[in-house]
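User: I'm putting together notes for a lab meeting next week and I want to include a structural view of one of the chains we've been expressing. I don't have a solved structure, so I'd like a prediction I can at least talk through. The sequence is below, exactly as it appears in our construct file.
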Amino acid sequence: MTTEAVTAAADIETYCDEGTERALALGNRGPLLFDQRGNVDEEILRAYHEIGFYVFEQAVSTEEISEIRAELNNVLSRAPIDSKSTVDANGNVAFGSEFKYRSFSFAKPLSDPYGGTDAANGRYEAKMSEPAPAKDAPGETIFFISGMCQLMDSCLRHYGNPRLLKVAETINGPDFTPFTDGIWIKEPELGTSVAWHQDGTTLWQSPDWHEDIHGFNFMTQLYDTTAENALWVVPGSHKLGKIDIRKRVTEAGTDRLSEAVPMLCKAGDVAICNRQVLHGSFANTSSQRRVTVVHGFHMRTSVLGAKTSFPAGNSVRYDEERVRRSSRMIPLAIDARHQHFADEEPYVYQPLVDEIEQNRLNEETRETLLKNYNMYSLGL
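Assistant: Thanks for the context. Below is the predicted structure for the 380-residue chain, given as structure tokens.
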């Protein structure tokens, strides 16, 4: 290793150590607690609204995490071998080819596929550094899986988690609506970076703008994270409105923003993250795998009438029928979970409480409701 490389590695180690210390001092982690009335603990809400994210420790059982891991590994074994292929490693027709939207996203190992491009309405303004992958690294690596609920029953069941849905109700009201979902994958020494960004793209200029207007994401960790492979977040940045990210990175002189902290989690932890916080992640040069199951929710008042170019770059106005169609995934997931975890009290989703029978998981709704559900996703 050259002197320059040794110095760079030492600088990164120091950055990670200092970020870890700041992260653990924030006071925004602990078990998911409810008060006697069944409401989310007030201290959790205070910390979340102040900082922009909160880590619910061990919110998902070891059993459920194991189920999701096993099904994910099966899906990956049947994925296309690269972005241009229609077959898996065994020469069989690749999984996901029956759906209208591509299930697997590929990129060059340790690259930044989005930074400095027009992707997602140009929200990834500044490109991250791109370390050189090993000489024997594959040409491409899977970094994202979309439409997780139609690919994996374990993810559909996880979507219907009653404790997490209660959090969604608390933050966004009982008539909350879905955002979208997927699985971020950072394989050891291969995982791509995600450039600094704010998720919200639509409502920055709204006269009714507030810090929660673009909704939030749940981020469920299937493996322990480290500062090297974790998502990094700038605390409190969700309150600042639209940030000039390119200017901020340029002024810092580095993509390692000094005010950011790593979102440190153990397997089974679930973080809730405001979609307006400034966040990103670096290429995974570590030896540890990170897999994050992501799904999010909006306020109905934010969604109804909004005009966006999501998904697939199409101009869409979200009317009542579009919102209802997307929201049917919630009772479908609740029923899927209840079929599997029969002893658990299911969540009741109030907007569709009179349509429970139409939204039960069976062979018919797998075809008519679950298949290609992500065509109707809502994104702001």
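A couple of points you could mention at the meeting. The chain has one domain: 3-300. Confidence is low (pLDDT under 50) at residues 1-7.

User: Perfect, that's what I needed.
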